[in-house]
Structure formats: structure tokens, C-alpha cells
């Protein structure tokens, strides 16, 4: 005799056939209902009884009826199969209906500088989806931390991984300043203006710029202030500390509100791509699919030209 797990896991169709015989009264009626032959139903019943080691049905040439053990087994099996059907329907619904809990991780810069207005707008569209944002620069393991979607910004392609990655938007790192600041007209003039260095830039810094034609300009500058993240750089620039670099994805809201302006808009320091990474692909739950598409539409597949 096989173990219980193997019995139940390996014979669901046998269980459905057994219940059909009880409910429709004959092997022929059960076979018609299930689209099988009478012989197939008979073999399923024999296999089920052999696995359980008990007679479930009393058979005569003209009829079939449940034994006492068969009746008790039917009542429990019927309820168990109903629960299984309901669970299967719920799982299929989760694939089609945007609902449930969305667990998201982003770098701190994105979590602070980009996500708040986007998450607010998304929640307005899908109030039945609850959202949890983990803003961290640590590369979290998606499976261990039960992450539905991770956003990663990189200047090149992502390394090979066992995750599904899709590009949401391209971005450029450009120079910005508060609108009341005096502004240069050419990169060579930047050394005459107060500069904020963000991320790895510090001390005597070589600032390398490229325009849309591929022309490059490099100059040595000495920043008046530095910070190791773009989120605080955004706030410092809004408060008029000087001119400094920001990804356009982070600066765009402040530019739209008139709090920042682009400096030398035809020039950029670097460019990159924002990726959405998930464990699952086409079979991702609806809540993940709609959020990924929402970000793609709001951020745009191309945030720069040239």
C-alpha cells in the first residue's frame, strides 16, 4: 500500500470519478458526465479501492451502491474536492484580478525621490492593492524577502540572473539648479559656479559631460558641498546650494513644479536604464503585472532622445 500523500496526490481524477458514481447512481451515468468510458470509470474505482485497502462500493450487475465505509469516504472527499475547487478558482482569480499585497523594493534614491507620487497615483487606481515599499540600497534576495518586484537602475545591462527583468525607462544624469540661480551657458564656465557633488564625487573632481552630438567636455571643479545620495542632493539643489547632477527621473517632478531647472540641457554626465525585476514572468499575479505596466507608462520607455 502506498502512503497517504501519494494516494491523494496521485489519484485526484479517481476521487472525482468515485464521487460522480455516488452522485449519478451508475457507472454509465458517471462516465457520460465525465466524458469517459464505463471501463475507464471502473478501473479508476478499482485502483482507488486498492490504494485505500477498503471496499467503497457494492456492485451488482444492475446497480452500484456505497458501502458504509464508502459513504463516509464520499462525504469527506466531496467536501475536500469542493475546497480544492474553490482554492483553484481563487488562485486563477489572483492571476486575473488586480488585488492583494504588493511588496516592492527600490534603491533609496528612487524610493524617496520618485516613488511617493507614483505609489499614491497607483493606489488611487487600484485601492484593492495594498503596497509595501522597502527602500534600501542592499541587493535583497527576492525569494527570501518575498519581494514581488524590485527596481534597479544601471548604466548598462543587468548581470545574468535567475530573475525576469524588463526595462521600464531610460534616464540621463544631468545638471540642475534652483530657478533663481545664475547659470552657465557652456560647460567650460561651470568652474565659476558653486557646485554640489553627489554620489562618489568629492574633493577636486573631474566633471565629464557629453552632448547629443557625442561631443565631450571635461573640466576640473571643486564642489562647495557633497552628498552620497541623490535624494539629499535633490533637496539641497531645491534650496539653492548651487548646480549639481541628478537623474532626470528624480528631478522631473521638481522641474514640473518649477522648483528646479535644467542646466546646460543639451549635455549629460551619463545615462542608464531602470529595470523591473521579478521572480515570475508571464504568470506573475495581476497586481504585479498592472504595477509594472503602470510604471512603464508613467516613466516612459524613453526618457531621453539622442
Q: What does this 3D model show about the protein?
A:
The chain is of the alpha+beta class and 306 residues long. The chain is built from 10 helices and 14 strands. It folds into 2 domains: 4-96, Arc Repressor Mutant, subunit A, CATH 1.10.10; 98-306, D-Maltodextrin-Binding Protein, domain 2 (3-Layer(aba) Sandwich). The strands form 4 sheets. Strands 3, 4, 5, 6, 11, 12 and 14 form a 7-stranded mixed β-sheet that branches. The chain has a 3-stranded antiparallel β-sheet with strand order 9-8-13, with no helix packed on it. The radius of gyration is 32 Å and the shape is rod-shaped.
Structural class: alpha+beta
pLDDT averaged over residues: 84
Shape: rod-shaped
Distance between the termini: 70 Å
- How are helices and strands ordered from N to C? HHHHEEHEHHEEEEEEEHEHEEEH
Care to count the β-strands? 14
- What proportion of the residues form beta strands (DSSP E)? 25-35%
Radius of gyration: 32 Å
Count of all domains: 2
CATH class of the largest domain: Alpha Beta
Task: List low-pLDDT spans.
Answer: 1-10, 301-306
Quick one: biggest sheet?
A: 7 strands, mixed
| Number of DSSP helical runs | 10
Helix content: 25-40%
CATH fold description of the largest domain: D-Maltodextrin-Binding Protein, domain 2
Judging by the overall fold, what is the CATH architecture of the largest domain?
Answer: 3-Layer(aba) Sandwich
GO molecular function: DNA binding; DNA-binding transcription factor activity
Organism: Halopseudomonas pachastrellae
Keywords: DNA-binding, Transcription, Transcription regulation
InterPro entries: LysR-type_TF_proteobact-type (IPR058163), LysR_HTH_N (IPR000847), LysR_subst-bd (IPR005119), WH-like_DNA-bd_sf (IPR036388), WH_DNA-bd_sf (IPR036390)
Amino acid at each position: 500500500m502506498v502512503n497517504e500523500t501519494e494516494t491523494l496526490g496521485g489519484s485526484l481524477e479517481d476521487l472525482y470519478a468515485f464521487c460522480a458514481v455516488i452522485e449519478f447512481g451508475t457507472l454509465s451515468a458517471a462516465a457520460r458526465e465525465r466524458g469517459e468510458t464505463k471501463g475507464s470509470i471502473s478501473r479508476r474505482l478499482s485502483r482507488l479501492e486498492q490504494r485505500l485497502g477498503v471496499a467503497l462500493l457494492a456492485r451488482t450487475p444492475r446497480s452500484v451502491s456505497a458501502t458504509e465505509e464508502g459513504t463516509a469516504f464520499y462525504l469527506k472527499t466531496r467536501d475536500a474536492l469542493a475546497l480544492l475547487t474553490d482554492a483553484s478558482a481563487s488562485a486563477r482569480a489572483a492571476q486575473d484580478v488586480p488585488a492583494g499585497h504588493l511588496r516592492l523594493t527600490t534603491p533609496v534614491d528612487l524610493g524617496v525621490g520618485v516613488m511617493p507620487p507614483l505609489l499614491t497615483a497607483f493606489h488611487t487606481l487600484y485601492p484593492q492593492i495594498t503596497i509595501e515599499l522597502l527602500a534600501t540600497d542592499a541587493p535583497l534576495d527576492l525569494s527570501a524577502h518575498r519581494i514581488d518586484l524590485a527596481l534597479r537602475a544601471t548604466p548598462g545591462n543587468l548581470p545574468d540572473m535567475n530573475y525576469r527583468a524588463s526595462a521600464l525607462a531610460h534616464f540621463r544624469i544631468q545638471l540642475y539648479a534652483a530657478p533663481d540661480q545664475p547659470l552657465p551657458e557652456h560647460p567650460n564656465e561651470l568652474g565659476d559656479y558653486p557646485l554640489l557633488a553627489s554620489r562618489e564625487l568629492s574633493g577636486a573632481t573631474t566633471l565629464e559631460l557629453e552632448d547629443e552630438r557625442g561631443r565631450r567636455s571635461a573640466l576640473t571643479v571643486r564642489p562647495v558641498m557633497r552628498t552620497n545620495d541623490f535624494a539629499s542632493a535633490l533637496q539641497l539643489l531645491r534650496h539653492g546650494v548651487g548646480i549639481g547632477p541628478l537623474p532626470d527621473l528624480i528631478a522631473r517632478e521638481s522641474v514640473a513644479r518649477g522648483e528646479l531647472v535644467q542646466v546646460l540641457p543639451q549635455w549629460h554626465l551619463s545615462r542608464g536604464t531602470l529595470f523591473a525585476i521579478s521572480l515570475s514572468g508571464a504568470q506573475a499575479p495581476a497586481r504585479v503585472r498592472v504595477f509594472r505596466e503602470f510604471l512603464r507608462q508613467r516613466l516612459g520607455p524613453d526618457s531621453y532622445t539622442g
